[in-house]
Design a protein that fits this description.
alpha/beta, 3 domains, WH-like_DNA-bd_sf, LysR family transcriptional regulator, DNA-binding, HTH-type_LysR_regulators
């Protein structure tokens, strides 16, 4: 699995010409290439060539030509729908920039938008130029041209290099979401022709990546071998940022009580019951339940303080009228936690969903929470305006079905 720091897309493929996209959308809307040419202030042959270039790029016919004009093909309908959504993201950037001029997509280029997103993501011109595959000079030129269009500086120079302004970060997020819609269009158009392309990036928190998500991906890829799935791990905050930027399609893991961003939604999958986990052969494994007074008699593996599970860890002892144990190892890595548990008498507050394979192999065992049924909600998080491709919907369906089958009626535990 890749860390969240590696969420940036491969930008080396030449971006779609924004002007060509506008020509196509105008032709699809008006039904006339001549009218599209008029709106764009170009000749009709130039408009026809722009549409031809897009058809070559997508590998599909986008418009049906007839005596009465043109009409979108099935592929054209897909592209037109995605472009409407893509341009709404640029319109949102317009509102952030408080521009009073013509729409942003009328005056910017794809190269300028790619330069902005690359520099914001990479944090330097050197790394951004490698990601985009152009020289630093070209990158500087594109950025300066973009700053002239928007009428404001987008980066500040510091002793550590360049730093994006708040406006630049918000602008880059919408520019990345614009690019994401175009990527989705390409995948959907390929699917119309029987091709299996596209990509789904999933941000997986510890519980999901231990069993549920890898199993669902394995099932999914049996029938979608050409679809690329990337599973990213990292702190929740980093994954959430990638989700909001359009670098991640959805997250799966413990749900939060208050989402930090209004444009995100959560969908519950199941209730995850917490247990006391230990190695097979542990002295407490012989007991059906762990007596509360023995909770502090053994060393512990504890979740890091920023993790949602930490509050449950604190409550475990407070509920029994005990002070937290002093002999603890804070660990955010489930792999490391497994080794600590199997190689010692340490205990850990964990979910059975995270040790499915270890329990089946007889390496770890679990006992009920002393306070009874203590659970947390596990679910999916995605952007409210996200429209998944058919393949992405199928993958999410596989996750939902496996969650229900494995953890039974939305519940996981004893």
């Amino acid at each position: 699995m890749k860390p969240a720091a590696e969420t940036e897309p491969d930008m080396r493929e030449k971006p779609l010409n924004l002007r060509h996209l506008r020509v196509f959308l105008a032709a699809a809307r008006t039904g006339m290439i001549s009218r599209a040419a008029g709106e764009m202030h170009i000749t009709q042959p130039a408009a026809s060539q722009a549409i031809h270039n897009l058809e070559e790029r997508f590998g599909a016919s986008l418009l049906r030509r007839g005596k009465g004009g043109v009409a979108p093909t099935s592929a054209g309908d897909v592209l037109a729908g995605r472009l409407e959504r893509a341009f709404r993201h640029l319109d949102a950037a317009d509102s952030i920039l408080s521009r009073r001029a013509a729409p942003l997509h009328s005056h910017t280029t794809s190269a300028q938008l790619e330069a902005l997103t690359a520099i914001v993501q990479q944090g330097s011109f050197v790394l951004a130029s490698r990601a985009v595959g152009v020289s630093r000079a070209s990158l500087h030129k594109s950025l300066r041209e973009l700053e002239r269009v928007v009428g404001t500086s987008l980066f500040e120079t510091t002793s550590f290099g360049v730093r994006p302004t708040r406006i630049a970060e918000a602008f880059a997020r919408h520019a990345r979401l614009y690019r994401h819609e175009l990527d989705q269009a390409g995948a959907e158009i390929a699917a119309l022709g029987g091709g299996e392309t596209g990509r789904t990036v999933v941000g997986a928190m510890p519980l999901a990546r231990s069993y549920l998500l890898p199993k669902a991906v394995s099932v999914f890829t049996q029938d979608h071998a050409g679809h690329r799935v990337s599973i990213l791990e990292g702190p929740y905050e980093s994954l959430l940022l990638g989700l909001r930027r359009g670098e991640i399609d959805f997250l799966i893991g413990a749900m939060r009580e208050d989402l930090p961003a209004r444009e995100l939604v959560e969908e519950p999958l199941f209730d995850d019951v917490l247990s006391i986990v230990m190695r097979a052969g542990h002295k407490l494994a012989a007991q059906a339940e762990v007596p509360p007074h023995l909770l502090t008699a053994y060393p512990w593996v504890a979740p890091r303080s920023a993790a949602p599970l930490h509050a449950h860890f604190v409550d475990l002892f407070a509920g029994a009228g005990l002070a937290p144990p002093s002999d603890i190892v804070e660990c955010s890595s489930l792999n490391a936690a497994r080794i600590l548990l199997m190689e010692s008498d340490r205990l850990m507050l964990l979910s059975n969903a995270q040790i499915v394979l270890e329990r089946a192999a007889g390496m770890l065992v679990s006992r009920p929470h002393p306070a009874g049924r203590i659970s947390r909600a596990i679910g999916l998080t995605y952007r409210a305006d996200w429209r998944p491709t058919q393949a992405q919907s199928t993958l999410m369906g596989a996750v939902r079905r496996l969650a229900a089958e494995t953890f039974g009626h939305g519940k996981a535990g004893f």
